[in-house]
Amino acid sequence: MEKHDFDNIIANDPYAYAPRLSVTIGGIDYGSTVNINFCASCSYRETAITMKKMLETQFPEIDVILDNYPPPLPKRLLSKVVPIFQFGVIGIIMAYEQIFPMIGIMTPVPWYYFLRANRFGSIVTAWLLGNVMQSSLQSSGAFEVFCNGELVFSKLKEGRFSGEIKLKDLVGKTLANSRVTNNLGVVWS
Fold first, then answer.
1. Domain presence at residue 116
2. Using an 8 Å Cβ cutoff, are 10 and 173 in contact?
3. By the 8 A CB rule, do 49 and 55 touch?
4. Do 78 and 131 fall within a single domain?
5. Is 172 part of any domain?
6. Residue 11 counted as domain residue
7. One domain for residues 171 and 92
8. Is 131 found in the same domain as 83?
9. Alpha carbon of 165 to those of 50, 51, 59, 106: distances in Å?
10. Count of domains in the chain?
11. Which of 71, 110, 114, 157 could staple 140 via S-S, CB 3.0–4.6 A?
12. pTM listed for this prediction
């Protein structure tokens, strides 16, 4: 980028490269951030959007960021294995006679005859059970609220949702108690 390009950007938007400072005025923390991390697969999105609108109405100068709270790594990895299991079961039901003689298994196992006799029901059952397993493995059940990086409310710890008024009070209390710093770590009073 040449110098005149940079000057044009600054002329059009003088705040484009200005560092953002948090400033407290009248008890509201301008430049503060509230992160709401929720379980997307648990259908908590509407609750998160409602809480976001309420917080933005109550504290107009804060940024409210919504994000998915992922499940733990072992559950995520297991959820990736489930479709392989589903297609494996469906493949066995549909093509046992062609697949297993190639690898030296000539006589089908006894349970195969049951699956083959009820082919449609077996495939649908494998598909539906796999989807239920995958859905339960991908859900975290979380609804976590952070204010400037500090945990304000945790559904995982509390075992329940916070009400709107309670959440507003918790965020307001955290904003009132927080000290304001700029990017260099200098505390302003």
1. yes
2. no
3. no
4. yes
5. yes
6. no
7. no
8. yes
9. 12, 10, 13, 68
10. 2
11. 71
12. 0.62
Q: In tens digits, what is the pLDDT along the chain, a chain of 189 residues? A: 444 444 444 444 444 333 334 444 444 556 788 999 998 888 888 989 999 999 989 888 889 999 989 889 999 899 999 999 999 888 888 887 787 788 887 777 788 888 888 889 999 999 999 999 998 898 888 999 999 889 999 999 998 988 888 988 899 888 887 754 434 444 444
CB 126 within 8 A of CB 21: no
Note whether 113 and 144 are same-domain residues.
Answer: no
Unique residue bearing structure tokens 């200098």: 186
Query: Is 23 in the same domain as 111?
Result: no
d(CA 157, CA 69): 14
Q: How many CB atoms lie within 10 A of CB 23?
A: 14
**38 vs 48: CA distance, rounded Å:** 7
User: Residue 93 sits in which domain range?
Assistant: 73-138
Alpha carbon 165 to its chain centroid, in Å, reads 24
- Token representation of residue 58: 């109550």
